Amino acid sequence: MGSLPPSLDLPSPPPKNPQHERVSETTLFNLFKAQQGHLNYFFQNLDLSQALSFTETLLNSRGTIFFSGVGKSGFVANKISQTLVSLGIRSAFLSPLDALHGDIGALSAADILVLFSKSGSTEELLRLIPCARAKGVYLISVTSVPKNALANACDMNVHLPLERELCPFDLAPVTSTAIQMVFGDTVAIALMGARNLTKDQYAANHPAGRIGKSLIFKVKDVMKKQDELPVCKEGDLIMDQLVELTRKGCGCLLVIDEEYHLLGTFTDGDLRRTLKASGEAIFKLTVGEMCNRKPRTIGPDAMAVEAMQKMESPPSAVQFLPVIDRQNTLIGIVTLHGLVSAGL
């Protein structure tokens, strides 16, 4: 066999790292312990009065809370802003570069501008301050180096105590950004509590995610109904209902009376057990004789996540729940497959 054309040559496996480039478990453990110590230093030395003043200022904001920063601090500022937005708080990230080229027009005297900077000497932020002050914005700096230029130029400063960076050269911003994130997200949750945000309000801000679906979707939103229901009467022969048992994809029959009241359920598992126990006698048995007269059920206004929990509860899990109203009238069925397909 000839060799493959050059364009089809398979790549060689990457060479193994030299021994000195490997990370030992002990080294990694010690780094985690060191970072834990640096974070503990932050918690032990944080001025809670400063943190409280900062939080209350954001809580009392009449306008939009803008966050800004450069580099890694900018990523943190953007993330914290997004967290506040998800809690229903008016917030936005303001790029200091874009601000100086037109975006500062978004600021008004009712707004707050929070500037994240480890050193407090970030040139782009210092250039932004006089422009923002001219708009009447309330300025807050969040820094880690004491007595910095940014703190002196703002209306409020929050000092985030930093022992040192985890980086062996004390340069790479890995601990400073961690404490910025911890600080900002903790304040966000404090605001969430102060504003008495309910689960429904929180879910309304996350309609497409699993969080929102679990808090918003009700059984009536995900159930099958009307022609999708595998219904039969208790006098129907089991063998005459096999097509209905499989055709609707629910794994069961819903046994009803003339007024559509639920009498019981008959599953494909019941079919197998009946066939094993009765043999040829199954041809003469009715659904009503072999159905479960006390199935688990649920109401249409229950939360969909509650339906899933009910399906999985002891003594054994089930794959579906008939949905009934207060008069025991069958109005739908919710299946485990349907809940999973809905993203729950």
From TrEMBL:
SUPFAM superfamilies noted in UniProt: SIS domain (SSF53697)
Region (Disordered): 1-22
CDD domains in UniProt: CBS_pair_SIS_assoc, SIS_Kpsf
Gene Ontology biological process terms from the UniProt entry: carbohydrate derivative metabolic process; carbohydrate metabolic process
Keyword annotations: CBS domain, Repeat
Domain of life of the organism encoding this protein: Eukaryota
Bias (Low complexity) ranges: 1-10
CBS domain segment(s): 223-282, 291-344
Residues the record marks as site: Catalytically relevant: K72, E124, E165, H206
The SIS domain, residue ranges: 54-197
Molecular function terms from GO: carbohydrate derivative binding; isomerase activity
Family label: Belongs to the SIS family. GutQ/KpsF subfamily.
Stated name of the protein: Arabinose 5-phosphate isomerase
